[in-house]
From TrEMBL:
The active site is at S185, D274, H303. InterPro entries: AB_hydrolase_fold (IPR029058), AXE1_dom (IPR008391), CE7 (IPR039069). Substrate binds at Y94. This is Cephalosporin deacetylase. It comes from Paenibacillus psychroresistens.
Length: 322
């Protein structure tokens, strides 16, 4: 088996020191408080689809900065305030994908759960990004506002993800004690962050989480979005005089640091041939998770979505624990 990272016997115990800044918790507590005081301004428009037993809505809610976050909301018709159903909140991967199409989530509805799939702001979907970034950046989203955690692109993204949980928790047809968060790659990192910053998710489903252990990921990964950070240095800081400053910013958004706060039951998948999200970075996140957790490792897979075994295992995990 080709080896792109540490040997497996080292990966399974790989648990590097966290990189949290002293004000990590305060930083997020202030943002969550600010978000809690901002109305969602939720809008739902029912769509006509040839699914007799499922209602499908195009939804919108306001981000913290008033960016209109777009999504699909699918609900089995039998859901009601008398018989509320569990829900999965889904976050998508980085670049080139968006909230998807309703038919992609039918199998979750077949399990008797609702689904909310949202756009990540500015990335390929219909959701814009209203933030104006003062500093220069290279193509992509990794370096927008990267010099300060208060201005970094992912600050608003993480809050958008939490507000998606607000949306489903407020729906009368949803059982707010049975919320799952799910994602692959970028979405996997966002699912961990959502469960770290919000106690409401009951379970977490994540595969090869992106945005984890930035320092090691940048050391190992060239053919991945992390290369945007290298390009930023080439354009704006060739001597890397601001490298420590940038790593400080990234530490507030690191899935490894977030994982240390996750107490929800978690199912995580890792592919050992991944050259985009390093296996060691995924193990770093997994090994820091505090709650009950389950891991599946796929030695011969790279960074590919929709692994059949993982999909089957997720359905069983949901059926058992949600």
């Amino acid at each position: 088996m080709p080896q792109n990272d540490l040997p497996y016997d080292q990966l399974i115990d790989y648990k590097p020191e966290l990189t949290k800044e002293p004000d990590f918790q305060l930083f997020w507590d202030k943002l969550k408080l600010e978000s809690s005081q901002k109305p969602l301004q939720a809008k739902l428009t029912e769509m006509q689809y040839p699914y007799k037993d499922i209602k499908i809505y195009r939804i919108q809610y306001a981000g913290l900065d008033n960016t209109p976050i777009q999504g699909w909301y699918l609900v089995p018709k039998r859901a009601s305030s008398v018989e509320p159903l569990p829900v999965m909140v889904r976050y998508h991967g980085y670049t080139g994908v968006d909230r998807g199409y309703p038919h992609q989530f039918m199998y979750w509805c077949a399990l008797g759960i609702a689904v909310l799939s949202i756009d990540i702001r500015g990335q390929a979907g219909e959701t814009p990004d209203y933030v104006v970034y003062a500093d220069g950046n290279v193509p992509g989203w990794m370096t927008k506002g990267i010099l300060n955690p208060q201005t970094y692109y992912y600050k608003q993204v993480f809050i958008d993800c939490l507000r998606a949980i607000d949306f489903v928790a407020e729906r009368p047809e949803i059982d707010a004690s049975r919320i799952a968060v799910y994602g692959e790659s970028q979405g996997g990192g966002l699912a961990l962050a959502a469960a770290a910053l919000d106690a409401r998710p009951k379970i977490v489903l994540s595969i090869f989480p992106f945005l984890s252990h930035f320092k090691r990921s940048m050391e190992l990964q060239i053919e991945s979005p992390y290369k945007e950070i290298f390009q930023w240095f080439m354009h704006f800081d060739p001597a890397r005089s601001k490298e420590a400053q940038i790593h400080r910013t990234l530490s507030y958004f690191d899935a490894m640091n977030m994982a240390s706060l996750v107490t929800a039951r978690t199912f995580l998948g890792i592919t050992l041939q991944d050259t985009c999200c390093a296996p060691s970075a995924s193990f770093a996140a997994y090994n820091h998770i505090c709650g009950e957790k389950q891991l599946e490792v796929y030695p011969d897979y790279g960074h590919v979505g929709g692994i059949p075994r993982f999909q089957e295992s997720m359905m069983q995990f949901i059926d058992t624990y949600l």
